[in-house]
Amino acid sequence: MTPRQEIEPGTVSGRWWHRLGDGRLQCDLCPRYCRLHEGQKGFCFVREARNGEIVLTSYGRASGFCIDPIEKKPLNHFYPGSSVLSFGTAGCNLGCRFCQNWDISKARESRTLASHASPRRVAEAAVDAGCTSIAFTYTDPVTFAEYAIDCAQEAHALGVRTVAVSAGYISPEARAGFFRCIDAANIDLKAFTERFYDKVCFAHLTPVLDTLEWLARETRVWLEVTTLIIPGQNDSEDEIARLCGWAAERLGPDVPLHFTGFHPDFKMTDVPPTPIATLRRARRQAKAAGMKHVYTGNLPDQEGQSTYCAACGGRVIGRDGYEITAWHLDGDGRCLDCGHRLAGRFAEGSGRWGATRRVVRMPGAPS
């Protein structure tokens, strides 16, 4: 069989599906379990019943490749200051009304996927650019799982780490196979009510909580969690308190939480931006619940973006946006004042990539 890394961009067989008794095919990748007749596409639009199997139609095709700071994912405890080669493809298995990447997540035409690259070429591009890791992001990598897995395997062969930025909406059947090749994940916990997931994301809360618990308890994947705070939707003190209490109990106090600011987009342009006071209040609530590392994002807030020692309270990583402004850890991630080891993955000293975002053009991609 032809190795996947040699397959031309386009369509490959899916890994998670089965045939139903009525002739339809059921996709088993995510909790939607789409049941498809021949020629039908799933909710994500990139998985299709074709010639008696479920196929992924976006394999090897991306909306573009960029080098980002790792803090933009956001990951603040995974090789801080390092650079990450980032890309996504079309399609998504959620329908968030506030999607900030809707132009690619809801794409229906192949012209959106202008960049082509085999898994091997993606890994080589990361090495050539000096990136510490590759991030499957912009759109949810669960929808292009086969491509992400093959890229991750090629990356690991070259000593490059892998990051998944995901909503965590993946089936129990597919979780182990997908996350086996992932070194770090930031999971978007959209809200802490079923009503929000149902009405705003066209999904369900419980599968996401199950994925989060599984990652925290059953894997070695470094985990951080992000909640985009939307005024009037998921910003109440009660909801934030319940979210933080659940995280402290079920994920553990060392898992970093990120509360980020909303800006009007897609189908929620009538909702105002998140006030910085709301993010700061959520951060205080999380710390009161016992979470050790809580961050604010998308708005200027150096205190909320910096990292503090969980033992002595001293600032160990200073940040201004995506810039590292101070570093007070040894090569093992221990506080230079008290010796307490910071939870996360660290190298000797911080990276120096900064806030730069650089586009990477793959050889052979359209100009």
List keywords for this structure.
9 helices; alpha/beta; 9-stranded mixed β-sheet; globular; single chain; 3-stranded antiparallel β-sheet; 20 strands; TIM Barrel; disordered N terminus; 367 residues; 2 domains
Give the helices and strands, then pairings.
Layout: E1 10-13, E2 17-19, E3 25-27, E4 35-36, E5 47-50, E6 53-59, E7 61-62, E8 65-69, E9 83-87, H1 102-105, E10 115-116, H2 119-128, E11 133-136, H3 145-157, E12 161-166, H4 172-179, E13 184-188, H5 194-201, H6 206-218, E14 222-229, H7 237-251, E15 257-261, H8 276-288, E16 294-297, H9 302-305, E17 307-308, E18 315-320, E19 323-327, E20 358-360
Parallel strand pairs: 9-11, 11-12, 12-13, 13-14, 14-15, 15-16
Antiparallel strand pairs: 1-6, 2-3, 3-4, 5-6, 7-10, 8-9, 8-20, 17-18, 18-19
Helix pairs in contact: 2-3, 7-8
